[in-house]
TrEMBL record:
<dbReference type="GO" id="GO:0008948">
    <property type="term" value="F:oxaloacetate decarboxylase activity"/>
</dbReference>
<feature type="binding site">
    <location>
        <position position="120"/>
    </location>
    <ligand>
        <name>Mg(2+)</name>
    </ligand>
</feature>
<dbReference type="InterPro" id="IPR036704">
    <property type="entry name" value="RraA/RraA-like_sf"/>
</dbReference>
<dbReference type="InterPro" id="IPR005493">
    <property type="entry name" value="RraA/RraA-like"/>
</dbReference>
<dbReference type="GO" id="GO:0046872">
    <property type="term" value="F:metal ion binding"/>
</dbReference>
<dbReference type="GO" id="GO:0047443">
    <property type="term" value="F:4-hydroxy-4-methyl-2-oxoglutarate aldolase activity"/>
</dbReference>
<feature type="binding site">
    <location>
        <begin position="97"/>
        <end position="100"/>
    </location>
    <ligand>
        <name>substrate</name>
    </ligand>
</feature>
<keyword id="KW-0479">Metal-binding</keyword>
<keyword id="KW-0460">Magnesium</keyword>
<dbReference type="Pfam" id="PF03737">
    <property type="entry name" value="RraA-like"/>
</dbReference>
<feature type="binding site">
    <location>
        <position position="119"/>
    </location>
    <ligand>
        <name>substrate</name>
    </ligand>
</feature>
<protein>
    <submittedName>
        <fullName>Ribonuclease E inhibitor RraA/Dimethylmenaquinone methyltransferase</fullName>
    </submittedName>
</protein>
Length: 192
């Protein structure tokens, strides 16, 4: 099954439908990624749905010894992917903004999920670009975090869930929330 055919199959359902099926398969929390909600194109009042393989982005605190990426991750966004931005817990700064959405939109990304804060909400909505996140903020990330890797496993920022999002895992977001639908290519799918 190709990525596109998986996306087409998943698009037929809501996140609640998929979550019910995952619960029946005894997958913890039905794949639900807690604390993430739709902010754009509208706040929790729209029929927007995103489905696609994860393109992960890992932020770490500035004092982390890992080297900062030498290029900007947004320029490598694969078409049809969902950008999953991982931010360390308790960072008040936004780690994603309007310029990044403009570029992601141009590159035909399906949408962005920010496990942290984002900014430029009006720009996101003007683009009608799908954003799911924990919250909004105003300050850019430069004084507190840096991007050190893309397409690596990242851990969900949650005290209550031990969820890891891997590159290529299929994510889905709609009015009901965000979930990890199935593992990416080469991994056992939860519905098999």
């Amino acid at each position: 099954m190709t990525d596109q055919s998986i996306v087409q199959q998943l698009e037929k359902f809501t996140t609640c439908d998929i979550s019910d099926a995952l619960c029946a398969l005894k997958y913890p929390n039905g794949g639900f990624l807690s604390g993430l909600a739709m902010w754009s194109p509208e706040r929790q009042s729209d029929s927007t749905k995103i489905v696609g393989p994860a393109y992960t982005v890992k932020y770490v605190p500035l004092d982390d010894p890992a080297s900062k990426l030498s290029t900007h991750y947004i320029d490598e966004t694969p078409a049809g992917s969902i950008i999953f931005v991982s931010c360390p817990p308790h960072i008040p700064n936004a780690v994603y903004g309007g310029l990044m959405s403009a570029r992601a939109h141009y590159l035909n990304a399906a949408g962005t999920i920010v496990d942290g804060r984002f900014r430029d909400l009006e720009e996101q909505r003007d683009l009608k670009y799908p954003i799911f996140a924990r919250n909004v903020g105003t300050a850019p990330p430069y004084e507190s975090v840096k991007v050190v890797a893309t397409n690596v496993p990242v851990k969900l920022q949650s005290e209550h869930q031990d969820m890891v999002i891997r590159p290529g895992d299929f994510l889905m977001g709609d009015l009901n929330g965000v979930l990890l639908c199935c593992r990416g290519r080469g991994r056992r799918r939860w519905w098999d």
